Amino acid sequence: MNWKERYQDKLVSADEAVSHIRSGDKIIFGDWVGEPAALVAALVRRAPELREVEIIHGMSPGPNDHLKPELSESFHHT
Q1: Cα–Cα distance for residue pair 27/67, rounded to 1 Å
Q2: 28 - beta bridge partners?
Q3: Predicted pLDDT at 16
Q4: CA separation for the pair 25, 32 (Å, rounded)
């Protein structure tokens, strides 16, 4: 298998990637342009089933749905 095939074999959707995050996990977002917008959106979609996920991040370019007060039981920000 060449590198292109190996790369393609590892690609997953944002929803699949965040499906591995569990309540109580700690995750780190990159700052500004390094923030993975698709992953943040997928994580917000999972908020109802998650509790106390600690998100370590700096400044965010937005959208900032993960910072909404109603998601405070799902996400803790550092």
Answers
A1: 15
A2: 56
A3: 97
A4: 22
- What integer pLDDT is reported at residue 12 of this predicted model? 95
Q: Which residues pair with 53 in a beta bridge?
A: 75
Tokens (6 digits) for 36: 């993975």
Mean pLDDT by 10 residues, the chain (78 residues): 91 96 94 87 97 92 87 94
- Judge contact between 75 and 51, C-beta under 8 A: no
In sequence order, the 6+-apart residues with CB closer than 8 A to the CB of 75 are: 43, 47, 50, 53, 54, 55, 66, 67
Residue 27 φ/ψ, nearest 5 degrees: -130, 160
Strands, E assignment, the chain:
26-28, 53-56, 75-77
What is the distance between the alpha carbons of residues 2 and 50, in angstroms, rounded to a whole number?
A: 38
